[in-house]
Backbone:
């Protein structure tokens, strides 16, 4: 498809579907954790994604060679990717999908703050500052709520750390020559580096296997194919067609869908304060990514 300068119906539908897809994945991670240890699950996901991505690149004739000046950025993004999912999978193992998602999807907040410092063209505007304050208030509300049996300070802090790592990956790509490398190669760096590290760490962080059932294996395969490899490639593809700011503006839907799916599919008891935090975070993300109107 040719490059577009505005969002059309197809793009909007695709991005809404992708946000729902990512939200459903949070539920899948939580359910799959019943059969695999969280870090072992993350390692298996990355290892499987390496194979799927290799086959896809081979079939499409995508080169595996990467310029030497992009290696440092690639390795750094891979290490951030490793720590991001070590923290996220561990968080989802000890807290609810709704809490972890509200905190994890606050990533645009921290990205905007970092971009304000490092990128002169992305200074904070009054609209973005309003969005930041709303989203940060939402995160504070979520952290302050200690009601419910699955509330854990460790889980909250792990989800927040994973959001920081996600923002660091974006910055890493932006400020290094890795930005000139095709998306498939960027993703290969991340899964190829994370897979062995996570699998080596897994035995030291709890049992590898729990009560494995077919649903857990299906959940793992879903993550490998539909998220960690082809899913992310689809998102990168949308980024090559539509303006990045327009694509980013749909990110506020992911935490909304995650909380709703956790409530519907896992019967999670979502406290009123968490619903309030969700509204604040989602509204803040929307304002952060909203393009200012031309005068």
Residues:
């Amino acid at each position: 498809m040719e490059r577009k300068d505005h969002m059309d119906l197809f793009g909007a539908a695709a991005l809404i579907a992708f946000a729902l897809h990512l939200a459903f994945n949070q539920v899948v991670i939580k359910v799959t954790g019943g059969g695999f240890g969280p870090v072992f699950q993350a390692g298996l996901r990355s290892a499987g994604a390496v194979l799927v991505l290799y086959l896809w690149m081979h079939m499409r004739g995508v080169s595996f060679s990467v310029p030497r000046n992009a290696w440092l950025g690639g390795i750094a993004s891979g290490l951030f990717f490793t720590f991001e999912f070590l923290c996220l999978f561990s968080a989802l193992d000890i807290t609810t999908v709704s809490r972890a998602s509200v905190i994890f999807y606050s990533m645009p907040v921290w990205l905007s703050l970092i971009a304000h410092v490092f990128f002169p063209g992305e200074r904070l505007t009054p609209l973005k500052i309003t969005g930041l304050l709303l989203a940060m208030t939402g995160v504070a509300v979520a952290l302050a709520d200690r009601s419910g049996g699955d509330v854990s300070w460790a889980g909250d802090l792990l989800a927040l750390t994973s959001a920081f790592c996600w923002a660091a990956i974006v910055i890493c790509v932006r400020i290094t020559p890795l930005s000139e490398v095709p998306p498939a190669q960027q993703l290969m760096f991340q899964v190829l580096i994370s897979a062995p590290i996570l699998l080596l760490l897994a035995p030291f962080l709890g049992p590898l296997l729990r009560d494995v059932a077919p649903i857990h294996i299906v959940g793992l395969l879903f993550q490998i194919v539909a998220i960690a490899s082809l899913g992310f490639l689809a998102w990168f593809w949308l980024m090559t067609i539509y303006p990045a700011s327009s694509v980013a503006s749909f990110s506020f839907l992911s935490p909304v869908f995650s909380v709703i799916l956790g409530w519907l599919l896992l019967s999670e008891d979502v406290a009123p304060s968490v619903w309030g935090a969700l509204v604040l975070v989602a509204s803040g993300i929307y304002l952060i990514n909203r393009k200012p109107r031309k005068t």
